[in-house]
Amino acid sequence: MTSNSHSVPAVSTDRERERTRLSRRGLLVFFAILIPFSTLGYVLAMKSEIFVLFLMWAPGLASILARVLLREGAADISLKIGGRLARRTLPFILLFPVVIGLVAYGTAWITGLVEYVTPDTFIKASPAITFIAMLLLQMIVGTAVGLIGSVGEELGWRGYMLTRLIDARIPYPMLISGIIWGLWHLPVMIAGNYNSGPYPALSVLLFMISIASFGYIIGRMRLKTGSVWPAVFLHASWNAVIQDVFDAFSQGKNALLWTGESGILVAFALLATAWFISRRPMSRLSNRRIA
Question: N or C: which end of the chain has fewer CB within 10 A?
Answer without folding.
Answer: N
